[in-house]
Amino acid sequence: MKRSEKIISSLVTFGMIVGFVSVAAFIALNYNNWFVEKEIPEKPAVSFSDTNGSRVQLNLTQSDMSEGISDDALDELNIYGFPTGDSPYFIYVEKGAHTLSVFEKDNYGLYTKRIYTWSTATGKTGVLTPVGVFSVGAKEEWHVWPAKTVSPYATKYYEKNNHYGGLFIHGPIYHYRSFKSLFDGTARQIGTNCSSGCLRTETEAAYFVYEMCPEGTLVKIVEGSPIGFSPDRIVYVSNQKVQPTLDRFLNPSNVIESLEFAEEKHTMILGEQYTPEIITKPDDIGYLNLNWTTNNPSIIRISGGSIWAVGTGTALVTASTSDQSLSATMLLNITVHNVDTTQNPPDVGGKTTEDNSKITDEYVPISEDLIYLNINKEKFAINQSVKPLLSNLGSKFYQKQPAQSCAYDGLDRFFVYEYINGGSCSISTVPMLADGGDAICEIEFKNYTNAKLESSKGIKLGDSFEDVRKAYGEFYTEVKVEDSKNSRNSFIRITYWAGKPNDPGVPSLYFTLDPETRNVKGMGIYSARNMG
Q1: How far apart (Å, rounded) are the C-alpha atoms in residues 47 and 316?
Q2: pTM of the prediction?
Q3: Looking at 15-19, 256-260, 293-297, 452-456, which range is the least confident one?
Q4: What is the pLDDT of residue 425?
Q5: In angstroms, how far is CA 135 from the centroid of its own chain?
Q6: Percent of the chain, pLDDT > 70?
Q7: Which of 182, 163, 164, 160 is nearest to 173 (CA)?
Q8: d(Cα 150, Cα 114) in Å, to the nearest integer?
Q9: What residue spans of 79-212 are helical by DSSP H?
Q10: Contact 170/89 with Cβ under 8 angstroms?
Q11: Omega into 365 within 30° of 0, i.e. cis?
Q12: What is the CA radius of gyration of the chain?
């Protein structure tokens, strides 16, 4: 054999030996992982107290590996970045999508398993429903509002360092404590901006939070819709008129033996909404499908069992079954009522800045005299009558949305002007004037191109943030509002307050800025008089 062939043969043999040794070593190193059953660490059980004080234990099994992996790895598994807590559920609210979602824990103890998404109403304006992480607090089966209306399954939510005494997650508004007395409009408004800060949601959703989410359950509320959840179903008025169960809804018998009005006569105030109480046999009838008629349609309007007073005088109202076999009649008297405004407005909600960590005792408020807008060379301030403003903007070109007020006798109103270029003007009012008229609670302009719009110190749309800061100073709060579905809806809000920012009832002047240029693209004034 030639010398070169011997060298090649030796190298091949050496390579085979090295390869065999390497494979043997690899098998030895991984033997335990491959062939020996390893013990899975068991995470200690977590417990909490339910609303009745009973101890409830979470069902965490050995498949829960969170004790055996690093914090960094857990952070990666927390796909939504939600906080952790002891409650079996977590509530997540996207104001932009008008949704309330409920999450339960996965095997790692993280809130990643979405089980429900319902529609919810939020504040009529962006500043009414605060953002942040809150906790579920006290609960009421029926909460009574200052206007003596009620809502079922009301659950307070609050932030540890700043309790919001009047903010609830609750069902629609009812005339009295019966699921037959629904103000239909308050159910149809679910999924819109219509509340005074509360999360007005479906009866079923409010019931779930009331019944299943113990005190201390975390609630996270965000601006916009960064994740973009959609509700699982459409809101129907009929679904709000029956008492829910965790198995969705039970439908009671609708075989009616007799019906009558609880009152033979009733007096209403012009502009008021009223739902008559109906007594039936049997008394557990759920949704009453009745036909309504009146002998004087010029002074009352009837919709879904609710009566609106649109004129003065008297009228007979008749409710009858669909087959006309049973009917009941009552007499209505419509009068005019003046609202006494000598007292301070009732506190039915809370109000806060978006980032309390930046608020200190040294905060210097602006003067309330600066909270006004110049529109077409006219000055418009908070708490003044809305009529001159509507006349200035064009009284025939707005859309109007009335709603039963929780705080006052009468109706809150929401006026919207929409312009061809995509701009808009929104006006909120409350019925607090001495003659029963509507007072300005908020004016907000967005993308408005009219050069005659100015703030109290001459700031116009298109001006820079530096212009705003030079005009009004360094004491303001700032929040960025993002919308994942439409980035054009994202903005930065700069707010100047006429008092301590995190106190209820503090009026404010605010500017919305383009997130990229930080130029002004909107402005508004807000009186902080709580709406219904």
Answers
A1: 58
A2: 0.48
A3: 15-19
A4: 86
A5: 15
A6: 67
A7: 182
A8: 30
A9: 184-188, 203-212
A10: no
A11: no
A12: 30
Reading the block at residue 318, the tokens are 């008749």
Q: Is the dihedral of CA 455, 458, 459, 460 positive or negative?
A: positive
Write down the domain spans for the chain: 49-249, 258-335, 356-526
- CA-based torsion, 286, 287, 289, 293: positive or negative: positive
For 55-114, the pLDDT digits (tens) are 233 333 333 444 555 666 666 677 888 988 889 899 999 998 999 999 988 878 889 888
Residue 54 banded pLDDT, cuts 50, 70, 90: very low
What number of H helices and E strands is found in the chain? 6, 33
DSSP single-letter state for residue 257: S
Superfamily of domain covering 49-249: L,D-transpeptidase catalytic domain-like (2.40.440.10)
- Determine the longest span between alpha carbons in the chain, in angstroms: 127
Residues near 367 by Cβ (< 8 Å), separated by ≥ 6?
Answer: 498
- Class of the 258-335 domain? mainly beta
Ranges of beta strands (E only) in 397-449 are 399-404, 411-418, 424-430, 439-446
Q: Give bridge partners of residue 464 from the DSSP assignment.
A: 519
In contact, 464 and 490? CB cutoff 8 Å: no
- Tell which residue, 394, 388, 386, has the closest CA to residue 428: 386
- Residue 360 pLDDT > 70, yes or no? no
Please, what sign has the CA dihedral across residues 119, 123, 127, 131? negative
On whether the CB atoms of residues 351 and 506 are closer than 8 A, the answer is yes
Q: Scanning the structure block, which residue is given the tokens 């043997």?
A: 24
Over residues 339-350, the pLDDT tens digits come to 444 454 444 333
For range 375-381, the mean pLDDT: 91
What is the per-residue pLDDT for 14?
61
Q: Which amino acid is at 306?
A: S
- What confidence score (pLDDT) does residue 108 get? 80
Per-residue DSSP letters for 31-77?
Answer: HHHHHSPPPPPPPPP-EEE-TTS-EEE----TT--GGGS-HHHHHHH
Nearest CA-CA partner of 493 in 473, 514, 464: 514
Q: Is 294 helix (H, G, I), strand (E, B) or coil?
A: strand
H or E stretch at 139: strand 132-144
Express each pLDDT in 459-502 by its tens digit: 998 899 999 999 999 888 887 776 655 666 678 889 898 887 75
Q: What is the pLDDT of residue 350?
A: 32
Q: Please, are residues 453 and 374 in contact by the beta-carbon 8 Å criterion?
A: yes
Between CA 414 and CA 442 the distance in angstroms is 9
Name residues whose C-beta falls within 8 Å of residue 65's C-beta, 6 or more positions apart in sequence: 40, 41, 43, 107, 108
